[in-house]
Design goal:
With about 170 residues, the chain is mainly beta. The protein has two domains: about 100 residues, no CATH class; about 60 residues, no CATH class. About 5% of the residues lie in helices and about 65% in strands. The chain has a seven-stranded mixed sheet with strand order 1-2-3-4-5-6-7.
């Protein structure tokens, strides 16, 4: 591409030609779509607030950003009501990421929730390499019930003690 073109480098991760992006639609006073990034400046994070918010810090129904808060959130730190996905994801219903915390379904390396799937899973029902919960499944399981190569469960303890009780 020629360096004289206005769109040269437009889609790089450094922003639009290393500039900050500030876009609101239909108007800045009532943004439905709000896209704000800080560009190459250090220390100044731009906050995007709108129905659809994209920015360094995004707050909206659907939010995408380094830190995002909303109904549906995607970002490094994502906090939401329905679903969040990111490095650290916290949600009421569905969370996915390296560290996922939710009240219902969590999927991640470390998953905490009612139903947890991950390398380390902690929840009422847990499935993972290390599963901890009321019902746990995986390699090492800790809980009331479960199945695993190394079971540390109440059911397993009762079975072992039953082997040594006289009939």
């Amino acid at each position: 591409m020629s360096s004289k073109n206005w769109f040269n480098g437009m889609w790089e991760s450094r922003g639009w030609n290393q500039r900050e992006i500030d876009y609101q639609w239909p108007s800045p006073s009532l943004p439905i779509i709000n896209i704000r990034t800080g560009g190459m400046r250090k220390g100044r994070h731009r906050v995007a607030i709108g129905v659809f918010a994209v920015g360094d810090i995004a707050v909206g129904l659907v939010s995408i950003g380094v830190v995002s808060v909303g109904i549906f959130s995607i970002g490094a730190v994502a906090i939401s009501w329905l679903a969040s996905f990111g490095a650290v994801a916290i949600a009421s219903y569905l969370a996915g990421g390296a560290v996922a915390i939710s009240n219902w379904l969590s999927i991640g390396a470390v998953a905490v929730g009612k139903l947890a799937l991950g390398a380390v899973a902690i929840g009422k029902t847990a499935l993972g390499a290390v599963g901890m919960g009321e019902s746990a499944y995986g390699f090492v399981v800790i809980g009331q019930h479960g199945f695993g190569l190394i079971p540390i469960t109440v059911d397993f303890a009762k079975w072992i003690t039953g082997l040594f009780k006289p009939s």
